[in-house]
Amino acid sequence: MTRIGLIRHGSTAWNKEGRIQGHTDNPLDEEGLQQAEAIAERLSGEHWDYIYSSDLLRARQTAEVIAAKLGLQVAGVIPGIREMNGGLLEGTTEQERVERWGTEWKSLDLGLESNESGKQRGSKAIEEIALKHPGHNILIVSHGAILRSSLTGLVPGLDVSVLLKNTSITRIVKGDNGWTCELYNCVKHMES
Question: Which CATH architecture has domain 2-86+114-190?
Answer without folding.
Answer: 3-Layer(aba) Sandwich (3.40)
